[in-house]
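Sample entry (148 residues):
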Amino acid sequence: MGKTSFQGPVYGAKSLLWAVHRDNQLPAANDTTTVTLAQVRVPAYEDWFVTEFKAFRGSSGSTAVTTTYTLTDDSTTVATLATASSVAGLMLSTTPAADAGEYEGVRVVANSTLAITLGHGGSSAAISSDVTCWVYGYVRYVDSTRAV
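Predicted structure, serialized as tokens:
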């Protein structure tokens, strides 16, 4: 069990909470919108504490455009990864700042929706494919008799 300053028990060590992989090219060429790679709902009996967000892009893109990977909790940004690199096989990683009063991690409460989005600013050259994202952290059990 990891070191915690949480107000409830944390079970298990820091581990993979969620992973996403997409083979197809996203977003489409010249598309200025941000594309949602995937979404997941946090179970009603758990709070998640996100401690790390990673993204891998297998394809190369354009160095003239910044590709952005964003982890959101009900539309609130938890972590962002951005690169202007055209390197194929690029791995990015970030550790979000801990919530006030917490030793480590951003709290995502039960029944929240986590989403991972990808944007490239409308470039026709910065298309991403073979994208994998990982969200790491701790899980805290939410007792049904305790107010959340």
